[in-house]
Design a protein that fits this description.
- With about 230 residues, the protein is of the alpha/beta class.
- The chain has nine helices and eight strands.
- The protein has a domain at about 60-220: Alpha-Beta Barrel (TIM Barrel).
- Strands 1-2-3-4-5-6-7-8 form an eight-stranded parallel beta barrel, surrounded by seven helices.
- α8 (about 190-195) links the parallel β7 (about 180) and β8 (about 200-205).
- The protein starts with 6 loop residues before the first strand and ends in a 16-residue tail after the last helix.
Length: about 230
């Protein structure tokens, strides 16, 4: 797998104009990334802009707080799939997970998985608000509910992906569940460090800088230094 095919190019900031989204899709198509992750209202736009490129269109449900009702998440997911979304990144109910209401969290995720009709579902835990025990519980519930990925963050919380969290998440879920790092993945060194720890998808806005750095290193123009392997946020 190439570096580009590990990246979900993120276009989720609320201030983005339609021209910004079109430009982001042009970047994603030209750089041949795995997907774009767009706001729900931009799915049709992204689908049209990326037609024929092989780049998938992802979007979000229950974003960014995860506290919408399950019926709302289900309706949202169904509409997004009908609009052409290939992947759904959903936020689990953070408060219910922190409260120990595992049945609610499981059923909320399972309902979205069913509504996605076989499309890939990534479950965002928003680790900045969770203890390690809660992170592990969230990962197990996501797997039991049929999700395809567990994901660290929305990118809108106080902290993003950390090495310690990727290691914990990878150790908690089975090999057939993938791990996505998002929030603070702004450099190639960070991506490589987290990839070695078990992440195989990365939400990023600095896509071009990351890929340009990789190309330069392949040409021998830049040293291949590694990011500090700490437990802190990148």
């Amino acid at each position: 797998m190439t570096i580009a095919k590990m990246i979900d190019h993120s276009l989720l900031r609320p201030e983005l104009t339609t021209d910004d989204v079109r430009h982001g899709c042009e970047v994603a198509g030209r750089r041949e990334v795995a997907s774009v992750c767009v706001r729900p209202t931009d799915v049709e736009l992204a689908k049209a802009a990326l037609a024929g490129t092989g780049v998938l269109v992802g979007t979000v449900a229950g974003f960014p707080h995860g506290d919408t009702r399950t019926t709302v998440k289900v309706t949202e997911t169904r509409e997004l799939v009908e609009a052409g979304a290939d992947e759904i990144d959903m936020v689990l109910h953070i408060g219910r997970l922190r409260s120990g209401d595992t049945a609610y969290v499981h059923d909320d995720i399972a309902a979205v998985v069913a509504a996605a009709q076989g499309h890939v579902v990534k479950v965002i835990l928003e680790n900045a608000y969770l203890t390690d025990e809660q992170k592990a519980t969230g990962c197990r519930l996501a797997e039991q509910a049929g999700a395809h990925f567990v994901k660290t963050s929305t990118g809108f919380a106080p902290g993003g992906a950390t090495l310690a969290d990727i290691q914990l998440m990878r150790a908690t879920v089975s090999p057939h569940i993938a791990v996505k790092a998002a929030g603070g993945v702004r450099s190639l060194d960070t991506l490589l460090t987290l990839h070695r720890a078990g992440a195989t998808r990365f939400g990023a806005t600095a896509t071009e800088a990351i890929l340009d750095d990789f190309a330069a290193r392949e040409r021998g123009e830049r040293p291949a230094t590694l990011a500090r392997a700490s437990g802190g946020a990148y």
